[in-house]
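Priority: medium. Attachment 1 of 2:
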């Protein structure tokens, strides 16, 4: 859809495309605290349906309008609505399943979410090439309406205990002081970086402009990354629950991601090599799911929505910033500032890709802090023991 939006909104340079792409993440991030608090004090079903309605309104604007400002507003509304999607699933999982099995349960949630990401690649490219971008947006909009109807009839209303003695500020203070939320959110965001950059607009453009691969083949290669993460999430979730060692698997996956990112830096245009790298990166990225049970285990159910909101702010904030930074680096190093005529040089791609190993190295440091070191910073004066925040 990247090329479709370039034409639809007459985007003039790569910075505009970066802003159009990242505004969804920033609006998502801005409303996560409010959404998380609402999930803690109101029935999950009611808040979730309201969020879907906001997303549908944004989808209607995106489909109907050709004005760039309206398009940005549409992306903003869709980000606001989407801020409740994953939090609602984690809230329901935390309330319905044993915490010892949360790794596998949340991995299934992520697996289903990745089906949507996979659908956004080759199937969407096929729809765009067959029916055009406008009809594809309409199909996506109708699918969102169908999901609203299914949730309305299938998800049972479930009231949760309201936080009668705690307002949004006291709840926010409580979860902000918990270092596990910060460390887990940072871990998830950095291990999710390949998906944020290569799985979004940039991946398809990189493969088509840099390696001269057709749009269809590029979509298939990116689809393999989503296939890898769909296999990796339940694997890491189930195996870490079975071995009762989440942090160990987090470390192994981050080291593997670091090595794969170095290989990607020097990869050639062999389609089989690129396919292997993308599916492998997707597989190890599936270990990001291990950060969510850590958040659930170190927060009470009454504050779990807000805790996930804090973590999601870190995830989307870091993802959106790095996505924009990736575009800025390419814009500075590319031959042209016009998206339609950009030629990525080997050096521009090489330097931009250095974000991957740098972030993976930082991720390894976060895991060691999470496991071993006392946390004496501006957040809290100590690392709490397991269960202290339950």
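Attachment 2 of 2:
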């Amino acid at each position: 859809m990247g090329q479709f939006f370039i034409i639809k909104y007459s985007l003039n340079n790569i910075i505009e495309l970066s802003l159009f792409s990242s505004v969804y993440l920033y609006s998502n991030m801005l409303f996560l605290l409010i959404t998380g608090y609402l999930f803690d004090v109101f029935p999950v079903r009611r808040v979730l349906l309201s969020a879907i309605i906001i997303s549908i309104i944004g989808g209607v604007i995106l489909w109907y309008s050709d004005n760039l400002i309206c398009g940005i507003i549409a992306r903003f509304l869709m980000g606001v609505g989407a801020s409740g999607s994953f939090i609602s699933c984690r809230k329901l999982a935390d309330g319905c399943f044993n915490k010892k099995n949360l790794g596998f349960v949340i991995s299934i949630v992520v697996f289903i979410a990745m089906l949507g990401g996979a659908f956004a690649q080759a199937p969407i490219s096929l729809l765009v090439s067959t029916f055009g971008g406008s009809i594809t947006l309409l199909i996506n909009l109708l699918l969102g309406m169908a999901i609203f109807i299914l949730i309305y009839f299938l998800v049972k209303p479930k009231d949760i205990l309201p936080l009668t003695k705690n307002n949004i500020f006291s709840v926010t203070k409580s979860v902000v002081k918990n270092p596990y939320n910060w460390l887990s959110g940072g871990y998830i965001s950095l291990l999710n970086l390949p998906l944020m950059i290569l799985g979004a607009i940039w991946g398809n453009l990189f493969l088509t402009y840099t390696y001269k691969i057709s749009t269809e083949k590029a979509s298939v290669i990116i689809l393999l990354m989503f296939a890898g993460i769909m296999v990796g999430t339940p694997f890491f979730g189930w195996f870490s629950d079975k071995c009762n060692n989440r942090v160990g698997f987090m470390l192994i996956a981050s080291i593997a991601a670091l090595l794969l990112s170095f290989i990607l830096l020097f990869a050639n245009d062999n389609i089989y090599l690129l396919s292997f790298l993308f599916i492998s990166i997707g597989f190890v990225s599936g270990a990001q799911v291990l950060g969510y049970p850590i958040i659930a285990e170190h927060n009470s159910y009454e504050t779990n929505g807000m805790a996930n909101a804090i973590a999601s702010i870190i995830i989307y904030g870091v993802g959106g910033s790095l996505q924009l930074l990736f575009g800025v680096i390419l814009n500075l190093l590319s031959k042209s500032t016009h998206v339609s005529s950009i030629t990525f040089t080997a050096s521009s791609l090489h330097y931009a890709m250095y974000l991957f190993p740098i972030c993976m190295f930082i991720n390894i440091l976060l895991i060691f802090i999470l496991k071993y070191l006392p946390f004496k910073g501006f957040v809290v004066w100590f690392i709490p023991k397991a269960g202290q925040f339950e």
